Amino acid sequence: MTLDNKTLLDELFQRYGHPSQEADFRITGYFQKAESLNKSADVQREDKRAAQMIEELSHKINQLTAYRLSLTERYNFLETALTVPVVRLIRERDYYNKKVHYYLCTLRRFDDSGIDVEESRRQYPGIERNNAICDFRAYVKAHPGIIAEMDIEKQRGEK
Fold this sequence. Notes:
- The chain is an alpha+beta fold and 159 residues long.
- It contains 3 helices and 6 strands, in the order H-E-E-H-E-E-E-H-E.
- The protein has helices spanning 3-12, 40-80, 129-142, and strands at residues 14-15, 18-19, 83-94, 99-110, 116-125, 147-151.
- The strands form 2 sheets. The chain has a 4-stranded mixed beta sheet, covered by helices on one side. A two-stranded antiparallel ribbon has the order 1-2.
- A hairpin with a 5-residue loop joins strand 4 (99-110) and strand 5.
């Protein structure tokens, strides 16, 4: 990515004058038909506004083109990055309903950053705890060398 493209992306991903992880923009314009304008000054004003709008839209097109380029680079990185498969069994309590659920999740962990990306998730009601543990162990057995993480202990203060 060129320096110009990085500059365009930095401009696109600004919120209130500060760098942001998100971009949100709207472009609106109000124009009148040429036949409805009766003064030369009005025609010149509308022409100037149309030219400004074209310039603003061209700039947004350049920013979005740079954004697409950065998306392509990110896609290529994600498809070629080294990952490690992970399986995780977790216990979560819904504090609103006071119900316990177990989740068997398969993940990809990036070697360089350690970030986990969830690929699948299966939910078990609390009364199926043994099924969840059996499925977890069967998955680990079927995939030798996989990183297995189990976090099913009750939290402190939980009944």
